[in-house]
C-alpha cells in the first residue's frame, strides 16, 4: 500500500482500514470509510449545523454543512455501498445531496428508510437512489464486507451497531448508543448480544465518545418520563417543552404525560411532525396517544395545553423562537406559562439560548433548563464512562478507536478502554488513516478533508 499520495490509496486483501472523513475530532457530520481488498464501505453520511456565534476554522459559512466527500467520490467505482446506522441528521442528513457523487446502493433499516424517502421526496434529489432495507438485527453482504446489524439502544427507533467482518479482521462499529434498560421505543439493551462478540476476536471497536468525559451511567428514558410527569403535573398554566425533534421516545413520554395530566398534546415544528409521521408509518407511535392540530391549541384553557416545540438551541427560525417573539400563528404565551428545555445545551449555542430566555423573561414566562432542574427532565442518548467500560469488557477488542467526539472526548474514551484492558488505542482525527490490520498504526492526514455547504 502507499499513503504518500491519495492516488494510490488502495487497500489490499490483507488490509483492514478505517478512514473518517467527518465526525472524528468533532461531534456531528459523520462520514466513515472502511477499506478492504480493493473496495470501500461508507458508514453514515451526516450534516452539521453552522452557528455564526460559534468560532470555527472553516471558511464555509453555510447554515448546513457536510464532510467533503472528494476522496471517495473520486473512487466511486470502488465504493461497494453505504450503510446508514440510524436516522439522526448527523448520520443521514447529507445523503440525499451527496448521493449522486457516489451512485451506489444504500442499506438501512425500515424506519431509517422511511425518513430517507421523506427527505428525498421533499428535496426532489436522488430520486433514483436504490434503498435496500435490512431488518433490525439482520445480516447482509456488501462487496467483501459481511455485515451483522446489531440492535442497540439510542434516542431514535431502530438504532444499529455493526459487526463488519472481512478476510483481514473484524470491526465492531458502535455508531450512537447507550445502555438503556427502559427505553420508550424498541427493546431494552441486551448485554448478551455484545458479550458474544468477545468470542469472535474483534480486531477493533470504533466507538462513540460523546459523553466520555462524564462519569457513571446515563439515565434511562423511563426515568426522564417520570421526571417530566412530576414537573408538569403540578402546573396550572400552559407548558411548552422544547427538545430534539428526532427523539421519538421523548415525544412518546410527553404524550403519556399529557394523558395522565389531562392535557392535549400539539407539535410545533415541521421536523417534529415529520418524525412522528414516520414513527406512525412504521408502527412506533402508540395508537392511544392522540395529537391535536396545532391550530386548535390556542383555544384551550391554559391548564389543558402541552406543546412540544422545536428550537431548544435558540435557532432563530424554530417554533420556540417564534413563540418567544409572540409571532407564532397558533399560540400566544402569557405570564407564568412554563417553558421546559428537555435537551442539553450544545456548546457554541450559549448566546442564542441566552437571547431566547431573555425574550421569554420579558413576557414573564418561566423557564427551566435541564442543567438547572433537580429532576432529570433530559437524558442523553450516549454512553457515559461506566457504559463505555462495560462495553469494552463485553467485546474485548484488540484495538480501541474512539470517534464521535472532540479531542478531549476521544482522549477520555481511550483512557476508559485502557483501564478496561484493551491493549491498544488508536486516536486521531478526520483524514487520518487507521490501519487496523495487518500491523496497527495511524498514517496522519493521509487524506485531505474539509467541509462543504449543502442546501437543506
TrEMBL record:
<dbReference type="InterPro" id="IPR011108">
    <property type="entry name" value="RMMBL"/>
</dbReference>
<dbReference type="InterPro" id="IPR055132">
    <property type="entry name" value="RNase_J_b_CASP"/>
</dbReference>
<dbReference type="GO" id="GO:0003723">
    <property type="term" value="F:RNA binding"/>
</dbReference>
<keyword id="KW-0862">Zinc</keyword>
<dbReference type="InterPro" id="IPR042173">
    <property type="entry name" value="RNase_J_2"/>
</dbReference>
<dbReference type="GO" id="GO:0046872">
    <property type="term" value="F:metal ion binding"/>
</dbReference>
<protein>
    <submittedName>
        <fullName>Beta-lactamase</fullName>
    </submittedName>
</protein>
<dbReference type="InterPro" id="IPR036866">
    <property type="entry name" value="RibonucZ/Hydroxyglut_hydro"/>
</dbReference>
<keyword id="KW-0479">Metal-binding</keyword>
<dbReference type="Pfam" id="PF12706">
    <property type="entry name" value="Lactamase_B_2"/>
</dbReference>
<keyword id="KW-0540">Nuclease</keyword>
<keyword id="KW-0269">Exonuclease</keyword>
<dbReference type="InterPro" id="IPR001279">
    <property type="entry name" value="Metallo-B-lactamas"/>
</dbReference>
<keyword id="KW-0378">Hydrolase</keyword>
<dbReference type="Pfam" id="PF22505">
    <property type="entry name" value="RNase_J_b_CASP"/>
</dbReference>
<dbReference type="GO" id="GO:0004527">
    <property type="term" value="F:exonuclease activity"/>
</dbReference>
<dbReference type="Pfam" id="PF07521">
    <property type="entry name" value="RMMBL"/>
</dbReference>
<keyword id="KW-0694">RNA-binding</keyword>
<feature type="domain" description="Metallo-beta-lactamase">
    <location>
        <begin position="28"/>
        <end position="228"/>
    </location>
</feature>
Amino acid at each position: 500500500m502507499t499513503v504518500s499520495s491519495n492516488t494510490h490509496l488502495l487497500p489490499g486483501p490483507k488490509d483492514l482500514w478505517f478512514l473518517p472523513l467527518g465526525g472524528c475530532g468533532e461531534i456531528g457530520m459523520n462520514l466513515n470509510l472502511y477499506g478492504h481488498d480493493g473496495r470501500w464501505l461508507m458508514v453514515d453520511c451526516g450534516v452539521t449545523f453552522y452557528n455564526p456565534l460559534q468560532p470555527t476554522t472553516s471558511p464555509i459559512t453555510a447554515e448546513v454543512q457536510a464532510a467533503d466527500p472528494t476522496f471517495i467520490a473520486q473512487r466511486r467505482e470502488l465504493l461497494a455501498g453505504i450503510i446508514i446506522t440510524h436516522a439522526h441528521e448527523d448520520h443521514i442528513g447529507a445523503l440525499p445531496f451527496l448521493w449522486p457523487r457516489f451512485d451506489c446502493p444504500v442499506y438501512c433499516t425500515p424506519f431509517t428508510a422511511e425518513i430517507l424517502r421523506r427527505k428525498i421526496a421533499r428535496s426532489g434529489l436522488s430520486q433514483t437512489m436504490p434503498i435496500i432495507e435490512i431488518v433490525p438485527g439482520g445480516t447482509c453482504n456488501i462487496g467483501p464486507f459481511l455485515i451483522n446489524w446489531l440492535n442497540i439502544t439510542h434516542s431514535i427507533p431502530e438504532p444499529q451497531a455493526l459487526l463488519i467482518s472481512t478476510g483481514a479482521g473484524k470491526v465492531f462499529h458502535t455508531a450512537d448508543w447507550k445502555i438503556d434498560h427502559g427505553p420508550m421505543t424498541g427493546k431494552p439493551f441486551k448485554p448478551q448480544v455484545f458479550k458474544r462478540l468477545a468470542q469472535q476476536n474483534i480486531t477493533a471497536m470504533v466507538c462513540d465518545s460523546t459523553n466520555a468525559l462524564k462519569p457513571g451511567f446515563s439515565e434511562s428514558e423511563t426515568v426522564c418520563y417520570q421526571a417530566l410527569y412530576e414537573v408538569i403535573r403540578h402546573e396550572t398554566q400552559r407548558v411548552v417543552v422544547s427538545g430534539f425533534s428526532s427523539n421519538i421516545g421523548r415525544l412518546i413520554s410527553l404524550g403519556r404525560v399529557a394523558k395522565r395530566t389531562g392535557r392535549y398534546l400539539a407539535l410545533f415544528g415541521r421536523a417534529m411532525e415529520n418524525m412522528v409521521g414516520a414513527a406512525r408509518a412504521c408502527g412506533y407511535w402508540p395508537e392511544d396517544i392522540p395529537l391535536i392540530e396545532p391550530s386548535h391549541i390556542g383555544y384551550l384553557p391554559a391548564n389543558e395545553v402541552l406543546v412540544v416545540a422545536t428550537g431548544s438551541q435558540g435557532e432563530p427560525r424554530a417554533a420556540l423562537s417564534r413563540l418567544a417573539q409572540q409571532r407564532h400563528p397558533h399560540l400566544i404565551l402569557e405570564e407564568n406559562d412554563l417553558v421546559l428545555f428537555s435537551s442539553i445545551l450544545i456548546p457554541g449555542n450559549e448566546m442564542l439560548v441566552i437571547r431566547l430566555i431573555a425574550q421569554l423573561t420579558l413576557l414573564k414566562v418561566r423557564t427551566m433548563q435541564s442543567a438547572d432542574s433537580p429532576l432529570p427532565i433530559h437524558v442523553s442518548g450516549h454512553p457515559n464512562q461506566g457504559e463505555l467500560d462495560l462495553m469494552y469488557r463485553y467485546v474485548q477488542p484488540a484495538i480501541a478507536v474512539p470517534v464521535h467526539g472532540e479531542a478531549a472526548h476521544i482522549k477520555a474514551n481511550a483512557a476508559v478502554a485502557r483501564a478496561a484492558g484493551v491493549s491498544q488505542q488508536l486516536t486521531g482525527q478526520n483524514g487520518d488513516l487507521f490501519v487496523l490490520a495487518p500491523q496497527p498504526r495511524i498514517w496522519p492526514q493521509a487524506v485531505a478533508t474539509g467541509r462543504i455547504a449543502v442546501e437543506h
